[in-house]
Each structure stands twice: as structure tokens, then as C-alpha cells.
Amino acid sequence: MAKSNLWxxxxxxxxxxxxxxxxxxxxxxxxxDEEKPSTAPLVTVIYGPNGLGDRSYCDLIYKxxxxxxxxxxxxxxxxxxxxxxxxxxxLDMMFRQMENASDSVRRLFITPSPVYDAYIxxxxxxxxxxxNADLLYMETTTPLEGKGSTLYIDYYGAMYMGGCLSHAIQxxxxxxxxxxxxxxTVVEAGEGFEAGFNDSSNYHVKxxxxxxxxxxxxxxxxxxxxxxxxxxxIINEEEAYLKVIDYLMIVPVCGGSMHSFIRSLWQTLGGYExxxxxxxxxxxxxxxxxxxxxxxxxxxxxDYIGMWLQGTMPKHQTLGLKDDATDVVLGYVAExxxxxxxxxxxxxxxxxxxxxxxx
Length: 359
Fold this sequence. Notes:
Blueprint: H1 3-13, E1 18-20, E2 27-29, E3 42-46, H2 57-72, E4 75-79, H3 84-100, E5 107-111, H4 117-123, E6 133-138, E7 149-153, H5 156-165, E8 172-178, H6 184-199, E9 209-215, H7 228-242, E10 248-253, H8 258-268, E11 274-279, E12 289-295, H9 297-310, E13 316-319, E14 326-330, H10 339-357
Parallel strand pairs: 3-4, 3-5, 5-6, 6-7, 7-13, 8-9, 8-10, 10-11, 11-12
Antiparallel strand pairs: 1-2, 12-14
């Protein structure tokens, strides 16, 4: 079934509450008159606006949820609204239905976007009326008052390693592209990278590299979706900033927007196309991907759905480099940095990340 047709069907069937088979391809309406209606647990993910298809964070969540479905035999439903308002309408519909549900089907709702923060914190207690419904709200360090669990993946340590290792490139400029200065995960990723960049002389030879930080948006949760023209403009401005450019390294912490920067690098700067992969492993591009900083949210999703099914989902967890929720995979810089120094750097990064949360 084509993806566009899949979402059309979802929009038609959602008012009656739909479920998706665990392989994500067949949509059917739950019918109370069926002889044997499904009683398999149902996991519903409500993404941020236009979240799915980013080839980054949201797609990794989708991957993890579907792998968990195959492993545990649960049903899944993925909702990717086109606007914040539509996402809030999905949430409100789910909460209302859970308040009135009379069946014993176990349901887990996952919301990975901070755009819904105010609504979730105001309404999550409504789920207390249904012992079979639960909530996982991701990317917040503040636990929910009342029903529901929270999860935060701290990028600080992995980004600290990335900042240090950015000095392994030849002399040039490193441009840290951040979606906005308000989203906690983005801000802490930027802080980690800057701290590592400034501490790099402690670990290996420090080349003459300049760090330049840019924001895509000054709106809360903005900057995650941009036009290619914006990426091209910023890259051209960075070239002018350096005057005579030898190397430009783009580090894009902006979700799916990073692909616009990578594509624009190829189109705009010819031979000076260097970047960090963010969220997923992109080091297969041995020519230009210096390293990848991973957020293993797909693996975390598998673990959390397993804990939910066992009734052991924690009230809150902050996971990071020590927990293998994040990692750094070296690309061509591996030839320039000794393995023992990378291992030493990792331990320092774990310690610095732990100090932030008293872990």
C-alpha cells in the first residue's frame, strides 16, 4: 500500500479508532460486533508535526516500535499530523476514548515531541480512569505528575566527544547548526559539542579549527523542517565568513533538516563537503562523513515496550553514553586519532555527562 494512501485511510478511520497490524501495512477498523475482536496490546505513536519521513529521529522511533511489535506480537498505530493542531486533536481523541473505554485491551501511547508538553501535563491524569492505558512522554527531564512515564536521552556526552574529535579535520571552520535555542535536547547537544571543542587540546593534536554556531529558528520547536534554499544560504554565508575556505565541517543538530544541509553541501561547495552524521550512522560515506553521533532511540523503544508489557516501565529515566543510548562512530577521522585516546575521551565524556544529572 502506498504511504500516501496509508495516511489517507488513517485520517478516514481515526474517528472510529483504528489499529494497524504489526507489519504496518494493513489498516482495519475495530468492530465491537466481531466474533473475536483483537485483544492484542496496542501501541500508538503520535509524532510531532510532519515527523515521519525525516530519515532521522522519528524514523528511528518508527523502526524500533515496529521491531518491538514483531518481537512481542503487539499492534501498532503511527500518527504523523501535518500541524500542531492536528496532533493535539489526535491526543484529545485518544484521551477521551480511554476515559470511556470498557474493554480490557492494553494500550500504550507514545509522544516523542515537546510541542505537546502543555497538553500532556494538563491531561495525563485523565488516563488514571483506565487501568489498561498508559503513556510514555519522551525527551523531557521533568517527570509527569500523575499517570505516565517520561524518558530523556542525553546527547551531551556523545556531542562532547564529537566536539573534541572535530579538531582531527584539517584547518578550517566547524559550523554547528542548531534547530533552535529552546528545545532542551538541541541546547544540551550544542553545549556538549562546544565543551568538547574547547577541551580538545587535552586529547590529541589541535588543528586550527574555528567553531561557528548558527540557529535555524528562534521559535520554540522551530527549525526542524527547512527549505533547501535556507540551507544553501547558510552554507554560502559560512563560506564568506571564512573568506578563503579550506575545509567546512557542518554539524547539523536539527532532525530531518540535516539532509538539506548535506545535499546543499554537494551542490554548493564542490569538493569541500564534510559533515557529521546525526542520530543515525552515516559513516558509510567514507569520503565526507567525519563521524556519526548516534541516538539509539530505536533500541530504547524496543526495551521500553518490553518493560511496559511486563509492567516495569520506570517513572523516569535519563539515558546517555554510559547506557549505550548514544554513541559515536568514527568515519575517516579514525585514521588520525589513536584508539586508546578515543577510549579515554569516551570515559571523560561519560563522567561529564553523569555530573550534569548526578548519575
